[in-house]
Amino acid sequence: MKKILFIVIASLLFNPQFTATSYQTQTFLYEHLLEVNVQWVHYKNIVPKKMISFQNDNERIRKHLLLVIDHLEEHFAQELTPGQLENRFVALNQLKQYAIDMKFPKNINHTIRTPYFIDHENTACAVGQMLRDNGNERIGQWVKANLNNAYVAEIPQGALDEWAFEYGFTRDELAWIQPGYAPSLDGWSSLQQGVNGPAKVVLEFDGNILIAGDFSDASGLAVNNVVLWDGTSYSALGAGVNGWVNCGIIFDGKLTLGGSFNGGFADIAIWDGINWNYEAAFASKFAETTSLGIYLGRLYAGGTASGFAGIDYILAYWDSPNWIWAAEFEGGQVRSISQIGDELLVGGNFVSVTDFSEIIEASNIALFTNQDVWVEFNGGTDGPVNDIIVTDENEVIIAGSILQNIVYNFGLAISDNGIWQQLITEGAFMQNNFSPSPFAHFNKVVIYQDDTLLCGNYSTAFGMENGTGLSTLETIGNFATGDPFFVTDGEIYDAVHFNDKLYIAGEFEQLTGGDFNNVAQFEGPNSISETENQLFSTYPNPAKDKIFVRSNAFEPSDLEDLWLLDMQGKKIKTSYTTAERKIEVNVQHVPSGQYILHLLLDDRPVNKKVTITN
């Protein structure tokens, strides 16, 4: 599977500067205004010198507009005619009401702040609304159809300039009025102010969400590396644990955490309902647990025992009242523990395993068979294994290293008759430019609303959407990539689905420009989920000349826009007609290949995978 990377997919080479000033940040007003519109660099001297933060980005845009309006009402060219002045003040007065109402466009297709002249809900930007209010909707609709995400300076001279002259505005003034819009994170919300350090574990515990890692504060509440979230607020779980947490599990009805505690004298912490109790699975000068799992009803732990002679990488199991060392690994730690049938499967970043009598070569994944011997599983892997999933049919899926420097690894693979079949296309996942780590990898795989979610540290792209850290696995023909949720400045370690919400934990401050601080929750699909997509059918597929889309969920008359995306993310416009519960799409001009049919229907994006054979 190892290959040297010679070609980098162009669609993944996005590099927006992840230095956006969040609306929540307490900073100088000028910095906030500059975030909304870079034209403020020419007007810095008129900005009040005060510190400020906002409740949301729309409040910040409103502030921008009101300050611009105040200035434009008092400063204008002396040569304006009385008619131009009257038009100017009428337009500014209308714009002031627009700003107060705060109904602004939504950026649903870009991961950086971008202008939208008119969005998918027919909401106009400030300049577009001025045109609309004064009977010039046709100009706005032309811009929407041709240059919807352009800045005013990029719009060719023509009808917009004629309107501006009639209403007493210069093009520079319109450019100053026009805001950019932050990416929409519909469905995502913060858990108040989050936690002030890495969150390695998120799981359901006693009807709440438990978050554990290496932090001391949860939205102003002093905690000790562990905290509960009840959906509205945080609470401590006893006195917390004295050390950092790497992993967690519910075993025998008790919450059990693995990490390093009490200065390395303990590596297991168990909550008995009142207090935390500590144990040492890897008793040594400094002990640390890196993974937990259950095999044949026993609790297993992978970790390290450190002493004067160095570090030993051990697998141990609990046999009350003692921890028994079952195996030792050379080269690195055990990161995942699973059961397949009546056998034990472990993954990590090791090169061999021994039961303290015989050394067995095993590259990153090993099986303890029902014959009580260790063997390398499936020929090993070419990179570290961070997660193992065993399906109900005993299929084995592994997730881990995607890219180390310029060398591709397996990333995500499934066992097929003794060999690994890669589940992602090489080049579809790359390094996260916003993270200090040079390596791309998956940390965990989670099933959410029939989607396969990939948590980790990477960048990916799906059509025109770019993102990092969390995506759903999408396969189109032979091309497998990720459909991203957001851009993050760190990585996602863990995720859990509970009460129709998805909770994520990691080491990040921001998700697409918003402050979240290591934890977040999601309610609702990133786009329409596969279950919802079943309400739509496309036929024939593969298609020649025409594709028909039928829906029992929405009226085709609600269709706002439709286009195709090729595998390079290029947008291909095509004509269509609508009838009762059916849309007919003309694809006669489209070359053969795999495409995504993208519809904006009833204000919601829908993606359907189609094959065209012209």
Describe this structure in words.
The protein has 614 residues and is mainly beta. It has 4 domains: 1-19 and 384-526, no CATH class; 27-177, no CATH class; 241-379, no CATH class; 531-612, Immunoglobulin-like. It has 8 helices and 47 strands. Strands 1, 25, 26, 27, 28, 29, 30, 31, 32, 33 and 34 form an 11-stranded antiparallel β-sheet that branches. Strands 15-16-17-18-21-22 form a 6-stranded antiparallel β-sheet, with no helix packed on it. A 4-stranded antiparallel β-sheet has the order 4-39-36-35, with no helix packed on it. Strand 33 and strand 34 (479-484) form a beta hairpin. The chain is globular and about 95 Å long. The model is unreliable at 1-19 and 525-535 (pLDDT under 50).
- What structural category characterises the helix and strand content? mainly beta
The description of the largest β-sheet is:
11 strands, antiparallel
Please count the helical segments.
8
Compute the CA-based radius of gyration: 28 Å
Instruction: Write down the overall geometry.
Output: globular
- Average the pLDDT over all residues and give the rounded result: 87
User: What gap, in angstroms, lies between the N and C termini?
Assistant: 34 Å
Q: What fraction of the residues are assigned to beta strands by DSSP?
A: 35-45%
